Amino acid sequence: MKRILVNGAGGFIGGHLVKRLKAEGFWVRGADVKRHEYSASPADDFIVGDLCEPDVARAAVEGVEEVYQLAADMGGAGYIFTGEHDAAVMHNSATINLNTLEFGTRAGVKKFFYSSSACIYPAYNQLDPANPKCSEDSAYPAAPDSEYGWEKLFSERLYLSYMRNQGVEVRIARFHNIFGPEGTWCGGREKAPAAVCRKVAETPDGGEIEIWGDGLQTRSFLFVDECIEGVRRLVESDFTGPVNIGSDEMVTINQLAAMAMDIAGKRLSIRHIEGPLGVRGRNSDNRLIWEELGWRPGRPLREGLEKTYAWIAGELAHSRNVRVATQAA
Predict the structure, then answer these.
(1) What CATH number does residue 241 fall under?
(2) Average pLDDT value for residue range 168-191
């Protein structure tokens, strides 16, 4: 039985990946600074610790053949684009990758998967919200829109360097706005789909929600199940990457909000306010993944948003019930 490590197993995508790998019959160890917030991990072993610490990273890679490295200091626009967390984002994420590769290679790990990001793409190619350019070969000359993107680009090169010099196998995917149930939905690190679903769910019919900017900025959003499918196909292939894993169904943030309102059956107004925005437009270019893997994501955004809205609405209801019970006690 193959033994696999998932770094970041206490997080959103990592938690879903552990479930998929266990369903496929692998022995899985999870490692993260925390356990999963919303569900119990089915991992065979789980190390709770900071992967920035050498002893934790060394213990995590011991006795495994493959590593899925998803651990990072990250969040949505409210965390990444304010500039207030740049030092922590770069230091923590880079240290995790340096530790994972060095100690993993010494321990005999044969293959590493690295989750990079669409944030590595140059800001100058994403000024037009209707025509962003995010093909894999457009990454250079490099000009990411955030320090988070710069660290991701550095770490891509780090993994490729270890592949050349240490002989390990590497697979690299650039994720585009992954969303779904059991992801962060409040507290400042949530991404746009979760934030919009929360605002719509907690606002009474006829009320108003806030959207950062004019709402005409564009993005594509990929449901987590398709992300995991793409990751597994990439890891089992002979293609190193980097390759985009994302949807090419591009919408404005206003359209995303309108879709969530329609799912909820609510008529709400939008008030546009100042806030961190990132690039003006972004969309996954899926030509390369189709050419190399014969697969690309195809589920409509609404299908995933319906599942995500239902889950977040349930979390809100649960939170309200807990508060009421606590007050009554």
Answers:
(1) 3.40.50.720
(2) 93
